[in-house]
UniProtKB/TrEMBL annotation:
InterPro entries: DUF4174. This is DUF4174 domain-containing protein. Residues 1-20 form the signal peptide. It holds the Pfam family DUF4174. It comes from Rubellimicrobium mesophilum DSM 19309.
Length: 170
């Protein structure tokens, strides 16, 4: 698990273009190239994956997913490492609630996500499917706490009444 977390941190520190390195013309590189410019398509293809904030438009996730954004000043910031470790252990619970995990650890890049949510240092921000901020915390949270915050929202309660998604965490 430590190796997976280290690899994730290295990927987050690399530019997004470097994430889709494969042999030119191969089927894998063509499908990755098609997804590279569309974070929503990347999330739909791999709901348990983690997206870089570079090129993400939060409005594109509206009514499709709940963006969970992990902000930090560096990919090696202890709170970022801890939050990603907590998420990695139970990412399936988040995927079952239509959560798209987005990481922004480069304040100098001034991503659209960072400009929209304006974090200071480490921040964990959860948006509901309608784009409203549901949760904003300056410290890491367990997936259980994040799931409870999701389960308390009106949109999630409606999903549960209609039979969509996982059962709530008590």
């Amino acid at each position: 698990m430590i190796h997976a977390l280290a690899a994730l941190l290295i990927l987050l520190a690399a530019p997004q273009a470097a994430l889709a390195q494969d042999l030119p013309g191969s089927e894998a590189s063509q499908s990755e190239a098609g997804l590279a410019g569309d974070p929503v398509a990347m999330w739909q293809a791999e709901p348990t994956g983690v997206l870089s904030a570079e090129g993400v438009d939060l409005a594109a996730f509206r009514y499709l997913a709940r963006p969970l954004v992990v902000f930090g000043d560096s990919p090696l910031q202890p709170q970022v490492v801890e939050q990603l470790r907590l998420i990695e252990r139970e990412i399936g619970d988040l995927a079952g609630r239509d959560v798209a995990v987005i990481v922004d650890t480069d304040p100098s890049a001034r991503s659209a996500v960072r400009q929209a949510l304006r974090p200071r240092g480490f921040a964990l921000v959860l948006l509901d499917k309608d784009g409203r901020v549901t949760l904003r915390r300056p410290a890491p949270l367990s997936v259980r706490e994040i799931a409870r915050a999701i389960d308390r929202t009106p949109l999630r309660r409606e999903e549960l009444r209609n039979g969509a998604g996982d059962e709530p965490i008590n």
